[in-house]
Amino acid sequence: MVLDSSQELYRLAQVLDWSALEQEFGTLYCADNGRPGVPIRLMAGLHLLKHTYGVSDEQVVAQWVLNPYWQFFCGEEYFQHQLPIHPSQMTRWRKRIGEAGMERLLQITIEAGKRTKTITERSFEKVIVDTTVQPKAVQHPTDARLYRKIHAAMLRIAEAEGLELRQSYRKLMEQAYRKHGGHSKAKQFKRATKVLKSLKTMAGRVMRDVERKLSPEAFEVHKGTMILAELALEQKRKTKHKVYSLHASETECIGKGKAHRPYEFGVKVSLAVTHKEGFVVGIQSCPGNPFDGHTLDGQLDQVARMVGRHPKLTFVDRGYKGHGVEPEKSRVLISGTRKLPYRLKRDLRRRAAIEPEIGHMKSEGLLGRNFLKGMLGDAANALLCGAGHNLRKILARLRALLYLLSGDTRRALEALLAALEPLSLPQPVLMAS
């Protein structure tokens, strides 16, 4: 089949600097040892497609086989009928390139934005910075649910190691968990508290029984789960750095002051977008739930790495008071500042434009729920969400230029786009093999 050269994804594939990625990531592979690696453009393209269209690792691999434009985007010359990789290879590739590699993927989307005139060099002079929460893929944590999961984890360890427990409490645990939910629903909180204590007691007894009977070698294998279970059972109401999930221990409780959602469980993310276009020029995870003002200096440094210089003006909300950024690095304007010239007042009113950009990244991208594991997964998902957001903006511009017009005007714009510094990349015709 012959592809339409005016299709936006076809055009986007020609302006991304694939050769630079292959040179940088090629050093991570060994040329004369083991099985040859999967093409770097294929892996990078799959990750960009995943976060552009907001799909999972499994879905992007499955849809790649059905979509010829996705295959061309990833560098294929002939139509392929087989899955390109196993979805688990996506995880291993993210670990291979690390956080620095994810930043490089974000950077090439910024360079593509300049080539397509979606943004210009002047766009980097003014940025808007804000923070949001990247929720983790965990159930809403409650004490009863946590005790139940600790109990289930201990039973799995006992079964794996062949341990004979004094009492498993399997049926009693399920009955007590349902009873606790019923009392809580009926607002009988004294009864619910009494049942909660029995849940904690049963989980603790099984944990201590397993701990006594584990051999030193087996304890080393399950040490992480055992330590987290003990911390979860010992924590009190005012304990800092609580354990909210056994499978995602890095999850934090973050309060953003929202009436409909007072607390969110995940990691804080700081992001910077251009003042006019809303193009992401910096995004990073901030573990430890730091004060917003303490994240600003590092965020501006990341912007400088991405675009080559610090912005002249940075617009933030009132949560950034006391940020401590030197005026020589960037002039920071906080919402509500008075006695400003009209031009700066007008620019400051646009600070809230970052909020819908965050909303699009959560609804259309994957920032609304992070399924990647660990702190590296938090950082990788945030950076790739920024890259996907930029690609959606570039595709929208190319689509508007090529499909909202017709006739002579469209042909003139096609000629104009052909002159927008296209990279010297091959332009094969994707044909069925």
Outline:
The protein is built from 16 helices and 8 strands. By secondary structure, it is an alpha/beta fold. The protein has a domain at 143-234.
Characteristic key phrases:
10% strand; 16 helices; 53% helix; 433 residues; 6-stranded mixed beta sheet; globular; two-stranded parallel ribbon; alpha/beta
Walk me through the structure.
The protein has helices at residues 8-15, 18-25, 40-53, 57-66, 68-73, 88-115, 143-161, 170-185, 189-213, 216-221, 223-234, 292-307, 342-349, 354-363, 374-403, 407-418; strands at residues 78-79, 126-135, 252-255, 263-274, 280-286, 313-316, 331-334, 431-432. It is an alpha/beta fold. The chain has a domain at 143-234. The radius of gyration is 26 Å and the shape is globular.
The biggest beta sheet reads: 6 strands, mixed
**Regions with pLDDT < 50 over 5+ consecutive residues?**
none
Number of helices: 16
* Topology as a string of helices (H) and strands (E): HHHHHEHEHHHHHEEEHEEHHHHE
Give the integer mean of the pLDDT values.
Answer: 90
Beta-strand segment tally: 8
By secondary-structure content and strand pairing, the structural class works out as: alpha/beta
- Estimate the helix proportion, in percent: 40-55%
Instruction: Please state the overall shape, judged from the principal axes of the Cα atoms.
Output: globular
- The fraction of residues assigned to DSSP E strands is 5-15%
Cα end-to-end separation: 10 Å
Based on CA atoms alone, the radius of gyration comes out at 26 Å
